[in-house]
Automatic annotation (TrEMBL):
This is Pecanex-like protein. It is found in: Membrane. Keywords: Membrane, Transmembrane, Transmembrane helix. InterPro entries: Pecanex. GO terms for cellular component: membrane. It is a multi-pass membrane protein. The chain crosses the membrane at residues 42-65, 77-97, 143-163, 175-195, 247-273, 317-339, 373-394, 459-484, 586-607. Belongs to the pecanex family. It comes from Gasterosteus aculeatus aculeatus.
Amino acid sequence: MVRMGPDVPLLNEYKQEFFWKRFPQTVLGGPRFKLGYCAPPYVYVNQVVLFLTPWLFGGIGTLLYQLQLLQELHATVLSGMLMFGAAAGVQALALYADQRTGTVERLGAPNILVDDEDVEFTHCVSSETVRFIAPGKRFGLNVVLHTMLAGVLCGFGTWYVFLGRLTALYDSIGVSLVVFVLSWVTLCIAEYSLIVNTAAETATFHAQDTYEITPLTRPLYILIFIAVDMADRFSGPAPELQLASQVLHVLFLFLPLLWALGILPPLDALLLWGMEQTLVFGLGGSPMSSNLRLLLMFGTSAGVAVCNYFIPSTLGVVLFSISTGFLLSLDLSQVGTLCRGPRAAFGERGFRRGGSSTPPPSSFGWNLGCRELLLYLSLLLVAMSEAGLLHHFLGSAQSQSWFKGPQAPVSYLLLVLFCFCWALREIQGAYVVGGVFLNPLYPKGMSNVQTFKQRNRGLYIAAAIRRVLLYLVSPFAMIAFLSLDKSLHLLHRVSLSVGFTRAFRVVWQNSEDALLQMVVVVLVRLSAGNDMLPGWDNLGTGVQLLVVGLLMDRVTQFLTKLKFTLTVLVTSWTEKKQRRQSAGTLLALNASLCPLLLAVVTLSALLSAPLLPLFTLPIFLVGFPRPQRSWPGPVGTACPCPDSIFYQQMSGSLASALRTAFARGSLGSLAPGSHFLGRFQDRMVWIMILERGYGYCTVNIKGLELQETSCHTVEARRVDEVFEAAFERPERLGFTQGFNLHWANALTPCAALAVRVYSDARNVLSGIIDSHDNLRKLQDDFLKALVWLLLRHCVQKHKGFLWINEEGPGVGGRKSQSSHLAQTTSNQPPEAVVVESNVSSLRFRQDSSSLTSFGDWSDEDDLFGPQPARRTVALVTAEAQLGHASLQAGASLPGSVGMDSLFENMALSALQPLQPLGLGIGMPALDKGRNPEIFRESPGSLPQLNFNCPQSEVFNLPTGWRTAPLLTSRLLQLRSLFPDDWFRFSMGQFGPAVQDETSEDMTKALKEDEALKELHTQVALSCLISLGAESAFTSPSYVYRLYCGDIPWTEGLDWLSSSKELYQLALRAFRFSFKLLFDQASLGPVESPEELFSTLEVYERDWYIGLVTEKGWHDSVLQEKPFLFSLGQDLAMGTYTGRVLSLQEQLIPLSDTQFTPQPPSTSPASDIFCPFSWTCFEEAGWMFVSRYYYSKKSISKVNYIKKFMWKI
């Protein structure tokens, strides 16, 4: 659907063709009369015959009854049996056609770009024709069930629309004939959808109809109508039933239109919606986070209400209701995980799956443990004791005036508690008085987290007082109010039993709402004084609370939907992109039909159903009722895009911050179905409350991205403006500054949460990577980093674990560029990071590495600009055989680099079909008849190393690392490049780590061991030559290729790649050296060996230095590595970029979205409504009647359910 200017049609030509093919099929129940290709006439004739078959059989029964040849019951049975036989015949033909074509292999792949597959018809009853008209059922049980239901439906339908019955209802033969004809159209539509071919329903709740429930939807609605008529026929004289039957017979004619518009819900959605509404408003529960939990909780709660009805003693009812209400309001799923240990309970809540390493809070009240069980047991015992004593001694006390009874003092206490709790909750948010005025007590500014927390300390005290009043004092006050109610003595009535079951349950399930409802009941009694309200007082307190809760919910929904309606009406004219040529006509039509519009809004609110504008126009429809979960699909999934991992990492920390915010009341009154929006840099988080109980809450955290286009950027900017107006404000507020200028916006900022997230900084490296002065230092830094890594590797191998150097008092280190920007509190142990690279294995390098390098070859002087590093087929295949699992990169974040796909920029010479056919163009010749190992020294021929110090053996390197096929003269020429002083200094730092007792003499002996130094010199220089870095680096493109691991062929590359461990060390050393170059260019040169040693330690412990596409990058983000660095290339701009991720505790503003699930405004600049993208809400299923009727592009990054408890 396009939503641009007035000249753009609502439906383009392709969509119009699709619409006119699909919509008639939906209206008629499945017949396909409009195809995208020519079909023989008998295809259409067969469908018409099958469509009218129920009418034919029903007409036979009706005619025989009207001619008095058969009685009413016999005519009904005859029509049903005829339809049963026809349905069985259709299913037998479908099964036969399926068996005929099941063994035939289909040649050619189907065209996925066409809507309908072309079918070659041979004759009217061929297998292709039968399969096209009646595809058949997938399950044998459904074949039997649907066939029997078709006969029952036809029989009862014939009985439902007998002319005699219609004439008796309407006393008019003309009206009866019209109703008779149109009613059979409805019956034929339902029968065709059930037996022949199921229509594409607009009201779709699940993506796939796995169990073939959709064909049952239309027949079962018809059976509901028939059931009402049967009740009218077989019951005594009941004017209400007769009137209902008359109305339903007329409404029966419009069922096809209701089905086509998607107003009637599918069976699964209807069942879940009914159970949820009954559980919430009738039994005092909460909407559940899953269908299974909803079924179990509904059954258990209904059983409690039934038990209360049969308990003879009122005291027993009170005690049983309090105990079951308290237990059912807890998260009982934690009991099972508690038996396996507290960590298991935490892990199953999704934090481990979310990838965050944030540990579970260990303080009291956060998770279910022994202390929490003791608290809950104490609360339950105190509540039952209080209720039992009050009801036993004071419950039977009678008073002529309510003001003089024992309930009056408790009522005044409830009023005081409500005022205090409301005031203390109101000051916790950024706005007060319904979001109209800024809260002067809320901290200003979001630049410093510590300052924000210090200024917020006073509100913490107020929040603690509120928690005590709301979760510990208020429940006991409300229980006292209910226990003293005189209507408890009339419990053996269904309404009172249900009402008090709900009242005692909601006290714990939602204490804040229960307190408000009781305050409303108390105010009604106070306003009535001593006067009696017969209709109201006869309901009883339990039913009164039920009615108040239902009315408050429906009135709130009505006001929200009315605001949404006015928003769409106003913006359809004020916004240029929404103003169409028909806008004035539609506005006038809505104004003239204002009562009808209000009726639609009211019906939508009463049914708790979405309000949908047709094609984004101000023409409103009522969507089908559904549970409050906007996306019924499974959670825990994520789209394969680069930024999914960041949402995955922050979900655990965000959930921990939400605990505190929920407990403090910063986010207002929490109700299942509430939505919140959080924003940080270019990330957006959509949060929905799924379930709430006493001390726990279940939320759905969904990552979004709204900056992929220019329109999304404008929308995101408007969101930033709303947040800045709330949190970035002057210290002293006048009246104009204290007023919320965005009050009419759907976004109402609530609070700022401190969350551990990655701050993303990108820098263009022009002037750094192309500076000759910087590149000259790269060679020396590489050797120093390699020496440091080799020595550290030896220490690790000796100790058997990662060695952590205890920094002495005199060793000062340098903080990297990002360390100056962010201070992190995470002290993680260093890890052995395996660097993923593009180097091939030895066997690939021997035969084809030079060929693939020939395709990638380019001059190293950047004559035509920087050359992108290419990943050839040989390299990719080698990675796969080595077990490297490189992360598949999708669409990258805006402005990001280094996220090339696996085969992007691949050289033509590296394609798989072009394998070398014995032509070694431009490559060194290899003697295939000789062993390639002759170019290396045999390990047995290597000279024996004579170390001067016994501890030198710890720093000995593997023998294979000394067998580089390089001439000794080349190593001697480069001997001066080896940093002897740095080697001695590093040995002095690492030496004490391998000694049982620190000895200065032993350390000195290690430094002066010439054999050990020559060993490390040989290995380091061999690696330098193998990487092609024996001369100073002069080309940025070569530096980039080495950083990426795409190393051009050199004489020693085969030797280096054969030792995976040494190759990883060399590549990491080069990346360390480049990061050191980056930091020195930004912060200044390293001034001492101590500073360099400390810097390398920081790199090893706190940094991941690699590529965005590597799996190590993905794992480091999940493990919350403090810093990450990657080098990338912007091919469009021809520049190299550096990307730095810093783990910081940042303030993320959170906003309450004040609307129920329905579409927002399409305007990107409208201030009346939140300027969201339609794409965002299409994913949630709120744009159209159907969630899956139209194809949509999902932009959800990650979707997790978090369940947690907060402090009581």
